[in-house]
Fold this sequence. Notes:
Number of domains: 1
Radius of gyration: 14 Å
Number of strands: 0
Helix content: 55-70%
Largest sheet: none
Number of helices: 6
Distance between the termini: 35 Å
Order of helices and strands: HHHHHH
Structural class: mainly alpha
Amino acid sequence: MGSKKSMTAADLERYDKNYSEKSLFKKIGKFARRAGRKTVYYALVLYFTLVDPKTPAKYKATIAGALGYFILPFDFLPDLIPGAGTVDDWGALVAAVAYVATAITPDIKSKAKNKLGEWFGSWDDADLGDLA
């Protein structure tokens, strides 16, 4: 059996032309409950990292690429496939978070949690995984 290749920063950068703030928030609004808090939190962390003026330029294309991939409705596993459609989106978000981790500040996490609270209400930080 072949092994599954992980997404790299270069892979993600191919999707940066698909990113827009409007499309991101539209996608999150449409699929937030299905994708779950943790996926939405990672997308928000990346968004707030992208718009932070202190984020190094070398990370911005990767973040925009990951968010662009997340936005696309017809990607490797289309989002309309119940249970499986967000798995590849999750992989893109996790790969980008790992690559840009040094640019993710406590303030960025706080902004993401505040926005998450507007959409989901309360939650336990344990629901958000290691990035919380």
